[in-house]
Specification:
- The structure is a single chain.
- The protein has a single domain (28-249), classed as Ribonucleotide Reductase, subunit A (Orthogonal Bundle).
- It has 12 helices and no strands.
- The protein is globular, with a radius of gyration of 18 Å.
- The protein is 65% helix and 0% strand.
- The chain has 254 residues and is an all-alpha fold.
- α2 (39-52) runs antiparallel to α4 (70-96).
């Protein structure tokens, strides 16, 4: 029974293929209204792009950990292809609006590799981050008055929601297969920080203003409901809001 809980990779891949968007054919780059995008939105996108551009390091760490798991390794190969696609799309949008991300900017923090103590930790770390990321892009699409940015964020949000569905499915599978208790899960969750902390030097400053502006408390509600369902008992997120927005508590975990 437990082995049937996770979303099959073939289903995930079919959804990706069905909804795949083209950087050249589907984004109306020539229709950008420069007068309708704000400097705050461009700075928000710059940091979001740097996080997406950290994908090669994330991929190196996680593919090493999951290389013997055919389903998860296959998912990660597609996920990180799409994340790097997001980076290039955002980088192009920024460039067309006069904001450059150099290769040096993109690779500045990639030198550090992460070895995870267990497979549960990255499932929580990256799965929970997808909740924030999907809601962030969805709400940015709703908030902006610039039509091409709206279109681009809608495309990216849809990708992130598919990633989130697989992560949550796999987390539920792993919890049951490995006999992980609610206490184990909470212990890991108490260390949570968004993956952007590794990619962006001033991530906390970004999150305190722009990130929280576009997500609010919704990710915490979604997470609490999902984890409560997975472990079968109520899950408290006490302290998590502080950890994701307080520079004193900001530290990545592995």
């Amino acid at each position: 029974m437990a082995s049937q809980l996770r979303m099959p990779f073939e289903r995930f891949f079919s959804l990706c293929e069905k909804h795949r968007w083209s950087l050249e054919g589907d984004v109306e780059w020539s229709s950008i209204r420069h007068d309708l995008v704000s400097s705050d939105e461009l700075e928000t996108l710059r940091r979001a792009a740097l996080t997406e551009g950290f994908s090669p390091t994330y991929a190196a760490d996680l593919l090493d950990l999951y290389c013997t798991d055919p389903e998860m390794a296959a998912f990660l190969s597609v996920q990180f292809y799409e994340e790097y696609k997001h980076f290039h799309a955002l980088r192009r949008y920024l460039r067309l609006n006069g904001v450059e991300i150099s290769d040096e900017d993109a690779t500045a923090r990639r030198g550090t590799r992460t070895k995870y103590a267990s497979r549960l930790i990255p499932l929580v770390k990256f799965g929970v981050s997808e909740i924030f990321t999907a809601i962030f892009y969805r709400n940015l699409a709703r908030a902006t008055g610039e039509p091409v940015l709206k279109q681009l964020c809608q495309f990216i949000a849809a990708d992130e929601y598919r990633h989130l569905s697989f992560y949550m499915s796999y987390l539920e599978y792993h919890v049951r297969e490995a006999g992980i208790t609610s206490e184990d899960l909470i212990r890991v969750l108490q260390q949570y920080q968004h993956q952007g902390l590794e990619a962006v030097e001033d991530w906390i400053e970004f999150w305190q203003v722009n990130g929280r502006h576009y997500t609010g408390l919704e990710p915490y509600v979604v997470l609490q409901n999902a984890l409560t369902r997975i472990v079968g008992t109520p899950v408290s997120l006490r302290g998590l809001v502080q950890r994701t927005s307080d520079r004193v508590h900001a530290q990545t975990f592995h």
